Give the backbone structure.
Amino acid sequence: MKSKELSETIAIKNKSEESWPAIQTDLDPWQPVWAQQKEFDLNSGKYVKIWHGPQHPGVTGNMSVELTLEGDVIVEAKTHVGYLHRGFEKLMERRKYIQCFPIVCRICVPEPDTNEYLLAAGIEELAGIEIPERAAWIRTLVLEMVRAASLTMGLGGQAGAFGLVPIGQWGVAHRDYILDLFEELTGGRVYHMYIIPGGVRQDFPEGFEEHVKFVMNKLEKLISDIEKVMFNNAVFKARAKGLGYIPPEWIEPYGITGTTARAAGVPIDVRKDNPYLIYDQLDFHKILGSASDVYERTTLRKEEILNSIRLIRQILERIPDGPVRAKLPNVLHWKIPAGETYVRAESGRGEMGYYMVSDGSEYPRRVHVRGASYTHAMAVLERLAVGNSIADMAGLMPSLQTCPPEIER
């Protein structure tokens, strides 16, 4: 279904106004949706309540959305989480700093290295550690590799939600090619624990750079095929264009970041706005859209994959020689100086941030994780779902790039 401007009435697609009453969406974006919506009398026989999810734990379905329907039209949506991992932040308060790395990897399974980097960067800022130059380049390479892997799988998931199942299979297969590279580099396919305080665990194995180039060529060919099969598909265009429109004025009050914000024409990208590692030495631009619907957001993510490929090739061409890890004290008895810091990075879903507090002991006093999924998949999804058909719910959710473990932190 097509959502219009914030203060307008949503017209129900393929239904006359006489058949289906118009649904008002003049809600205040600064206030919770649940506090502004009216109650629906289920005993009237006019409405029915169903649960969308939880479904497979590897996709956005490992959360549930409680939907109230009038016919096939959604008139109310309430998100429910708690079906997956829980309590990451509290677990970290009871573990030494180095023992937190296997925990943070699981905060977003498709993109674990971003969480590794943020935890390491927070520790380094608190402890005053400078990492070697080559380590910074390797970290950036790893972050762009995992961004490409995550977005490729997400692109396939978006296609599968609209019935283009082969693209979903292509996306998973080509993500596996990138996971082969991670296995070669780190010894692990999904969780890596490769980015550590002071740098990275080890340098490239022999022949690794050529293997990366080979996989990037395969991924670039895949994007060309997806362009033909998905973005030129009349059914995908008809269902995705106009669906889930996000006005630019929502970006700030809802805390929308990443490609979801850039698809609305708002130029938010941590890599450019607050450069970290060696992003200020690389040649790339913010990719912006304007339509701000599912089709536009998906298009931007396709372009982000191509952008990551270009960045990876730049890094491989220019990476300097040198050590990859700074000397550290015994990490099992490492007391981090008291203080607090906030570090951020641009994940595939948007801004990821870690607020870390140390009280001078061997354990973190507080670690708070700010992921894009919390705002995108709860507040924004509850708002966008209203007025759309139940048939469009599956396509709307992946367009917001949900990673439920980020919510259940």
In short: The longest strand covers residues 73-80. The mean pLDDT is 86. Residues 124 and 197 are 6 Å apart (CA to CA).
